[in-house]
Design a protein that fits this description.
mainly alpha; Globin-like; 8 helices; about 65% helix; globular
């Protein structure tokens, strides 16, 4: 029997916890709420930087609850953000931590992108990166090339 009565909800919770646990492992954090705040902020800043079609294609590959976090508060008719470099992008993510800043804001964004890359197809990650300026693309993990 499912804990919540629906297996799809149980799986959605499990998937969301996997993402958060991986993020906490990478950053050596023990605060799930902080990891959630980071993931949410990074997803929103990324979403708001992408063109609408790409934002929707990316969302289709996210687990159910992560997709809900991603879409929370989205207003697609609003002009997209225009972060031109990594510093602007990182600062926008870090704005969620205005009263308790991270020691390494760029490292936290890199950690989120690492988790995303581990769970979203390489093709979709390539599509996302191709929509971003070079400086922001460099925040993503380097792709392994098969030999």
């Amino acid at each position: 029997m499912s804990a919540l009565g629906l297996r799809i909800f149980d799986k959605a919770i499990k998937d969301a916890n996997i993402w958060l646990d991986e993020l906490m492992d990478i950053l050596d954090w023990d605060d799930k709420q902080r990891a959630y705040r980071l993931l949410r902020s990074a997803l929103h800043v990324l979403r708001d930087r992408l063109q609408i079609n790409e934002a929707v294609h990316f969302a289709a590959e996210l687990p159910i609850f992560i997709r809900g976090i991603y879409y929370e508060g989205w207003q697609p008719a609003r002009p997209r953000s225009d972060h031109k470099n990594a510093d602007e992008f990182v600062a926008a993510v870090e704005a969620a931590f205005d009263t308790d800043p991270n020691a390494d804001p760029e490292g936290t964004v890199r950690a989120v992108f690492s988790v995303i890359s581990a769970h979203v197809s390489a093709g979709e990650i390539g599509d996302i990166k191709s929509c971003l300026p070079e400086g922001i693309r460099r925040l993503w993990p380097v792709e392994e090339v098969a030999q």
